[in-house]
Amino acid sequence: xxxxxxxxxKFRKELSSGTVSLxxxxxxxxxxxxxxxxxxxxxxxxxxxxxxxxxxxVTVKQGAIYPVLRSLEAQDLLSSEREMTDSGPPRKYYxxxxxxxxxxxxxxxxxxxxxxxxxxxxxxxxQ
Amino acid sequence: xxxxxxxxxxxxxxxxxxxQGADKATVQDALADAEEHLRTALESEKADQEDLxxxxxxxxxxxxxxxxEEIAQAYLSWESNLPPALAATPAARRIASAxxxxxxxxxxxxxxxxxxxxxxVFMLIxxxxxxxxxxxxxxxxxxxxxxxxxxxxxxxxxxxLLSVRGxxxxxxxxxxxxxxxxxxxxxxxxxxxxxxxERLVQLLTGxxxxxxxxxxxxxxxxxxxxxxxxxxxxxxALALIATPIAAIVFNVPFDAISYGEVIWYLPDYLTPLVAxxxxxxxxVTMHLARWTGKFHGKFAKALLVSx
Lengths: 127, 307
Known about the structure:
- The structure holds 2 protein chains of 2 kinds.
- Chain A is mainly alpha-helical.
- Chain A has helices at 4-31, 37-45, 65-74, 98-122; strands at residues 35-36, 78-83, 91-96.
- In chain A, a hairpin with a 7-residue loop joins strand 2 and strand 3.
- The longest helix of chain A has 28 residues, at 4-31.
- Chain A is globular.
- Chain A starts with a helix and ends in a 5-residue tail after the last helix.
- The A-B interface holds A 17, 36-38, 41, 45, 48-51, 55, 61-64, 66-68, 70-71, 74-75, 82, 87-92 and B 29-30, 32-37, 39-41, 43-45, 49, 57, 59-61, 63-67, 70-71, 74-75, 77-79, 81-83, 90, 185-187, 189, 192.
């Protein structure tokens, strides 16, 4: 028997794999200043506080942001700088590059097209 | 009840277990990211949630970070799309990393392969880096052993071993940039919760410290071999290519072999073939540089990246 919860989870994961990149790029463009992983996670996870049983509702776990940040950096859309801290491990600060800003514009357009397409299908009348 | 550090360590162990079989460098990056996040999050959320005990806060933080299994999956799927630093255009990189082969097929395609050029540059500069590493390793080791009977011996030794760690990381970056072998992108840091004694034990008994030292020592002979072989082959290939020009255009008899009083001249129609031979040798040299680069990347990873 197919686990229906598992199917939902898979669907969520497939959807998030592109949207998270877009969201990260957008957040880092809007803030203008370099941010480290935890701050970005806070902004993206937003209102859902630690221990909230509805934590599942977040599209992406905070830990899953890091590999995406690395991937964006490898594509030269983000740049990073490591800074030492007084206590604890060094932090990696991420910043959007010029290529990243251009990519955001293009991706936003793609996103709008996709959104319109899905909205039209879901709200359509195919009877 | 577990302490905060134990909880973080348990999570990191779980993550490591979930990443079993993955690229060693990926594992190190994933662990560094997780530790950075958990400790930073703990510190800032402790202030917001004063009514909670520290280990309750960290449990919440770990939950928001995501289950080890899930996070490991995220790294694995992203890393498979993530090429090492130097591998031509993004499209070529994807093909190359998917097939595990060069994006530039064919015998002469090697001239367009950045890996071959990277290998060549690495082999040429390894004489310099190898000499520096070796001198530093031997000087540091003998100085610290020499003054060990004095009280300053211990701090000298510790400073020296720390420098070995730093240099190992730096060499790793060089190897990734030139040879394309995936190496750690962040230096491993020591656990802040440990006291100086435990950290010292970790430094002295850690496999990575001593393997790094071994690598630095081995780089001198390797560097000499790499440099000599490359310079010899490159100059021989260039000389062969230049021979017909010297012989035909400038009338310098480079295509002649003298044996006592007898001088053999290569027939005029064969002289241009010497240049062809030179081009072939140059191509073989590039293949050798590419292959050696690949080999050295694996070698560096085995010694410089700890499990």
